[in-house]
Specification:
By secondary structure, the protein is of the alpha+beta class. Helix content is about 35%, strand content about 30%.
Length: about 100
């Protein structure tokens, strides 16, 4: 089992270009981002960073290899097998934790 964690200061991503968004979010995630805005981008960025940290010794990934959508209850779920994630927002910060169980 491996754990990864990442925290983002939200203002750091506030004025990022559309090119940055295209490099971080998949097409489906970009659609959600249009509706949900900055907190969504910060959460996905932090979660993907956490996932990469949890998988650091096993796989080489880029941001677009990872897709994080929500299940019917709003829980974020990852397209990669054996990954559990949690995303939390608090005022100026977003934190994500990823657990890779194998």
């Amino acid at each position: 089992m491996n754990i990864g964690c990442d925290i983002v200061e939200n203002k750091r991503l506030k004025n990022k270009s559309s090119r940055f968004v295209e490099l971080i979010l998949t097409k489906k995630e970009q659609q959600e981002y249009k509706d949900k805005g900055l907190p969504y981008l910060c959460g996905r960025f932090a979660a993907k960073e956490a996932i990469m940290k949890a998988l650091s010794n096993t796989q080489q990934l880029n941001f677009l290899d990872i897709e994080i959508l929500n299940d019917k209850n709003g829980q974020p779920i990852c397209n990669l097998p054996n990954i559990a994630i949690s995303i939390s927002h608090e005022k100026n910060y977003t934190i994500a934790t990823a657990l890779f169980y194998h």
